[in-house]
Design goal:
Elements (H helix, E strand, L loop, with lengths): L3 H16 L4 H28 L34 H13 L6 H10 L3 H7 L9 H12 L2 H13 L9 H20 L8 H9 L4 H10 L8 H24 L8 H7 L11 E3 L6 E3 L2
Antiparallel strand pairs: 1-2
Helix pairs in contact: 4-6, 7-8, 8-11
Length: 292
């Protein structure tokens, strides 16, 4: 590049010789115009280069999820660290988020954090929301809560803590039965053979019911064989429907006008005791009155 002025001068001399002395002035004007165009083009090119946006310095794998991206809303169950909630949360999250190929790992981590709270949220709260951290955060959560022995024990404790029904209403009966059925469904999802626990389950549920419902249950049994939990559930369904219908009928019926003892006494004839001689005196003439 240092020899460029010398090369340029030799080229210019060659052009002038080839053009002849008569055309020297015309050639000079063309050369000046060309240099002007070149200088203008070079300046425009340099200006355009400065306006270009530099490429991102971070790799796509470690780029945080952009806050401006609006992710679709999902109805996901929350999980706070209660082992009895793990099965339902795990199944829903795996099917809706973890197995969703349209979501990036960073977006999956965002969904994971959004449905955690309490102790469970604290476990992964230190992870930045990016693609590289999702697998580690999800594996850490599973290693802490996906423990079969702990889950089964938690369900047994929860069933033991179900409160006894305070009355013989349909709502009270459903409250007891629904609580047991929820834990039974969770245990079945873990492939625990609760079908062989009928004797224990029937005993536990019946003892959580009010007296009148227990009485009706005993009266409904006609076989000497121990009843199954499905039989008890069917009995409860029928009884709850009956109690609900009775409650609705009582509440909607227009009661008849009551006849109280005081009202009856006012409408009835009143007889006063008379002296044994069956006689009385007139209050005006003081004469005797005969009542025979």
């Amino acid at each position: 590049m240092k020899d460029f002025p010398w090369i340029q001068k030799r080229s210019q001399d060659a052009v002038e010789i080839s053009c002849g002395s008569d055309n020297a002035e015309l050639e000079e004007n063309v050369r000046i115009q060309a240099e002007t165009w070149y200088s203008t083009s070079l300046a425009n090119f340099n200006r355009a280069q400065k306006c270009r946006t530099p490429p991102p310095s971070q790799s796509a794998a470690s780029t945080p999820v952009c806050a401006s991206i609006r992710l679709p809303e999902m109805e996901l169950p929350t999980f706070s660290g209660d082992s009895t909630e793990w099965v339902g949360f795990y199944d829903a999250f795996c099917s809706l988020v973890d197995a969703n190929a349209t979501l990036s790992d960073g977006q999956k981590l965002h969904y994971l954090r959004s449905c955690l709270k309490g102790e469970a949220l604290k476990i992964i709260s230190g992870f930045q929301i990016c693609d590289a951290n999702y697998k580690e955060a999800w594996d850490l959560l599973k290693s802490r809560f996906k423990i079969m022995r702990v889950i089964v024990e938690a369900h047994f404790r929860a069933m033991a803590d179900i409160r006894k029904a305070a009355s013989d209403t349909a709502g009270a009966i459903k409250g007891v039965l629904d609580a047991y059925q929820q834990h039974i469904r969770e245990l079945k999802a873990l492939r625990r053979t609760v079908e062989f626990w009928d004797d224990w389950l029937v005993h536990e549920v019946v003892n959580k019911l009010a007296f009148e419902t227990r009485k009706q249950w005993e009266l409904s049994l006609v076989s000497d064989e121990p009843p199954t939990f499905d039989q008890l559930s069917a009995f409860h369904e029928v009884r709850c429907q009956s109690l609900s219908m009775l409650s609705t009928a009582t509440g909607s019926a227009t009661p008849g006008k009551p006849t109280s003892a005081s009202t009856a006494s006012k409408s009835a004839k009143v007889f006063h005791a008379l002296p044994e001689n069956n006689s009385a005196s007139c209050s005006y003439c003081k004469g005797a009155l005969c009542l025979r």
